[in-house]
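just leaving the lab so this will be short. below you get a single protein, a line of residues and a line of whole numbers that encode the local backbone shape. id like you to explain what the token line says about the fold, in plain words if possible. thanks a lot i owe you, the record is right below:

…
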Amino acid sequence: MDKKPGISNAEWVVMKVLWQRGSLTTTEVHEAVAEETDWHPKTVRTLLGRLVDKGVLRREKRAGALRFIPVAGEEAYVRDESRSFLERCFGGALTPMMAHFLEHEDVDAETLAELQAMLKSKARKGKDK
């Protein structure tokens, strides 16, 4: 698995919009992020340029408009970020991370049931190998 270029928190905001909506112009990205940020259009343009330079986005001219398209899907970046978080905060060990969240976060019965189902499914898959 190739490690993806790191992206900043601000770049994540831009990428989430592009992953959700696909190919967008600078103006469309700015309008989409305006709901949660007070960024100037130049800020969005700068972030898009950085993401292109990192190889995370590609630019494409379509029907006279410059559009930005994600190079890799969100899942690949979430996987890399999750792995990085797990390594940095918990030495790569899943059990202490799960224990931490279960101890320090409010977890309702429905969420616990979902987690139990996931664990049972994972255990069954492990037995099948």
Q: What stands out?
A: The beta strands are 57-62, 65-70. The mean pLDDT is 92. The two ends are 22 Å apart (CA to CA).
